[in-house]
Structure formats: C-alpha cells, structure tokens
Amino acid sequence: YKRQGREFTLVNHGIDDHFDQLYRERYHCMDLFVHPLLARSVGEPAISSELVDDEVLLASRIYREWAAPQGFRDTLMTMFTRHHARLSLMGLTRRLEQRRYDESDRQALKLIAPHIQRAVLISDFIEHQALERSRFVEVIDSITAATLVIDAERRILHANSVARGLLEKGRIVGSNRGALTLAGLPLWKPRRASDAGSGDRPLPETQRLRAPGDDADTMIVIMPLFVSEKMAPAAGLQYAVFIQDTGQISPLASDVWSQLFGLTGSELRVLQGLIQGSAPSEIADHYGIARSTVKTHLMSLFRKTGTRRQAELVKLALGAVPPVQAVRS
User: Measured over all CA atoms, what is the biggest interatomic distance in the chain, rounded to whole angstroms?
Assistant: First the structure.
C-alpha cells in the first residue's frame, strides 16, 4: 500500500526481517513487476510470467540478490486501487519447491480481490474526509503538479497547495515582491495580449532544470490562459505555470502512457527511467538487465510514439502526464 512516496505494509508473512529491510532500502526501486502491473486493469490478477519474461526475471538483480536467496520463484499479483500518488496492491509468492501458479489460482484471487479492494476504499474514505472548500480552490488544489496563475508582469495571482510549499522552500521557485522567479532560469517576461498578432497565439513554453542536490529534473510549463484577444485581460495575458518533479510523477502517468501509446510494462519502465534523466545504460545497470534489451525497448518506444530521439520521446511523454488527481478504483 503506497501513498505519497511512503509505503505501508499491511500484511507481510514469510519474509525474513533482514530481507524485508533490504527491499525497503535497496531493492524496491528495482522491482520489475510494478510497471507491467500498472498497465493492467485494477482487480485483474496477473501471474509473474505474464508481467516479466522468465529469462529477464531470472537475470535481474532483484531476483539474483533478493528473491533467489529466499527461494522465491513465482508470484501472483493484483492491484486494488490506483489514483494519483496512491497505490494498493498485493503479491503472493511461491517458493521453488512449490508448484507454479496457474489459471485456477488467478480465478481464485479474482474472487477475493473485490472484498479486499472494498476494505481499502473504506479505509481511505475514513482517513481522508476533507473540510468543504470553495470550488475554485478545490479544483486547483486537486492538481498534483505545483500550479500558479500569474499575470504579464509575473505577479502571482493564485498558487495551489503544492506550489505554496515550493514557494516556502524557495529552491525551485520564489517570490520577489510578489513576482514569480524560477531558479536556474533568467528573468523572463510573458508576452502581453497586444504582442500576439492575429493567428500568432502564444504557445506553451517548456523549461527543464535540475536544482543543486536534486536527483531528478524539474519540468516547468508556462501556458497562456486566453483564447482570443477579446477574452484577454486589459493588462495583458494571464498564464498558468505547472511545475512537475520528474522523479515524483504520478503512477497514473504510466497508465496514461500505456493507453495512449500501447506500451508494455517493460517499455514503461524504460520510459520512466529516461524521463527521470537516466541513460539507457544506467537503466539496464539499475535493473540488472541486458543493455541490448533496453535498446530494443527504446527502439520500440520510438516506433510506437513516432519519435526519433530520446529528447523528443521524453518531451512527448511529459506532455501526456495527467496533471489532475483522478480517483480510480
């Protein structure tokens, strides 16, 4: 059960405390099953061989260094809930001496899953009752990315809760006498409505930067909010500014990428690594898989998305990141 970057294990049986700690500290980010599971429907059980090819799994670091020493071999998994930064899932693992999971096991778990899913949803409802807020603030605060509305002079007109947190830290974004500043980027001044001629509507501008000490890049998208000159404020355009840490992209993004481009779980894993700034060789080393395998997935990504270069692929994928918390079950 994962929420906002934290992991809560509700039931953990049959795993030694030492290996449990190793998974949390070292191997959870190498798990080969999560991305393929995200590409499946909620409540639809999957056998490990359907999620990852046996050959790839047995050669991976997490299997060689973590699963094999415990005698683990086959896994049956299902996801109960999936929405913005919140996942709940279950995995049942068998040892080498036990028979492998088959279709009868899948059907049995499929019968049990709705009951566990209902319990998780009830728990979420009780835990996350919220006070009523105005509709505008509720909508803006539902956006997972830091979101600000500014005018042509960069004055901050509104900031959602995520953006207010960033402003308080002052590392990526800041406020200079009420005007928005972006760390690592020169002072910029959005165009006024009068600067845009007929048919010359300003396009969204994307910037990518990495603050000192950060492990992942930050994407900043500046988007004009007017549709026509008649709708533009007299003082000039207003803009929405979206700030997204690529290292904390919502799990829902993987679901969207999968649906838009028809990606496999392995391709999703490679795409996520590229977005976080890793080279293909680093992705291969991280998961303990062959570099040629990653290259094959990269070529498939190019083909499915109609792109030719990594930078073009990453830009396209980031443009498809869902910015709103969509509750799904």
Answer: 75
- Give the strand order in the sheet containing 46-47: 6-7, 2-3, 86-95, 72-83, 46-47
Q: Identify whether the C-beta of residue 89 lies closer than 8 Å to the C-beta of residue 37.
A: yes
Residues 6+ apart with CB under 8 A from 287: 30, 32, 60, 61, 62, 269
d(CA 163, CA 249): 15
Other C-beta atoms closer than 10 Å to the C-beta of 64 total 13
Within 8 A by CB and 6+ apart from 78, the residues are 43, 44, 45, 46, 89, 90, 109, 110, 113
At what angle are helices 265-275 and 251-261 packed, to 10 degrees? 120
Give the number of C-alpha atoms closer than 13 A to the C-alpha of residue 317, restricted to the C-beta side: 33
327, 31, 25, 314 alpha-carbon torsion, rounded to 10°: -70
Quote the radius of gyration of the chain (alpha carbons, Å). 22
Distance from chain centroid for Cα 299: 22
Residue 155 is classified by DSSP as B
Phi, psi of 90 (to 5 degrees): -140, 140
DSSP state of 65: I
Q: pTM for this structure?
A: 0.52
Q: Which parts of the chain fold into alpha helices (H)?
A: 17-22, 34-38, 48-51, 54-59, 61-62, 103-127, 135-141, 161-169, 251-261, 265-275, 280-287, 291-305, 310-319
Secondary structure (DSSP) of 83-130: ETTEEEEEEEEEETTSPPP-HHHHHHHHHHHHHHHHHHHHHHHHHT--
**Residue at token pair 């083909």:** 303
CA angle 48, 251, 114 (to 5 degrees): 60
The mean pLDDT of 34-42, rounded to a whole number, is: 85
Taking only the tens place, the pLDDT of each residue in 234-291 is 556 788 888 876 655 555 567 777 777 888 888 988 998 888 788 999 999 999 999 9
Nearest Cα neighbor of 105 from 79, 78, 76 is: 76
